[in-house]
Amino acid sequence: MKPEQGHPGDDQEAVASGHGEPAGSAGSNGDAQRTLQLLRDELDGLDAALLETLRRRLDCCCRIGLHKRDHAIPMMQPHRIGVVQARAAAFAAEHGMSAPFLRSLYELMITETCRLEDEIIGVPST
């Protein structure tokens, strides 16, 4: 994310309103609040899409776990984790995002994936 785009959690009514005026300027507060609400509505929609994508990702990982179990493939695939982390780092660099943030995010997702695969692989196939 580029610095001029702001930071997550910032309430930059003056920038969001497009007027460049401080949030408390006469006449701009109503516009600033409406713009802020529109931006928050957009963020809520993006969050919903992100959560649905995360659900679909975990579902796919469960199907991978079933495939590994049914074909006696070891759960841990360290080279695959490296591929995923490298792709996230490249994405961060290309889009001006924080590489440590994406690394941490993927570490969380990979930890959950491993937990799910452990549960699946520990269950005998039917």
TrEMBL record:
Q: Give the UniProt record's GO annotations in the biological process aspect.
A: chorismate metabolic process; salicylic acid biosynthetic process
Biased composition, class Basic and acidic residues, residue ranges? 1-10
SMART domains reported for this sequence: CM_2
Question: What region holds the Chorismate mutase domain?
Answer: 30-121
Organism domain of life: Bacteria
List the keywords (alphabetical).
Isomerase
> Which residue stretches, if any, does this entry annotate as coiled coil?
none
User: Where is the region Disordered?
Assistant: 1-33
EC no. given is: 5.4.99.5
Q: Which InterPro entries match?
A: Chorismate_II_sf, CM_dom_sf, CM_II_prokaryot, Isochorismate_pyruvate-lyase
Pfam families referenced in this protein's UniProt entry, alphabetically: CM_2 (PF01817)
Q: Which NCBIfam families match?
A: CM-like (TIGR01803)
Its protein name is chorismate mutase
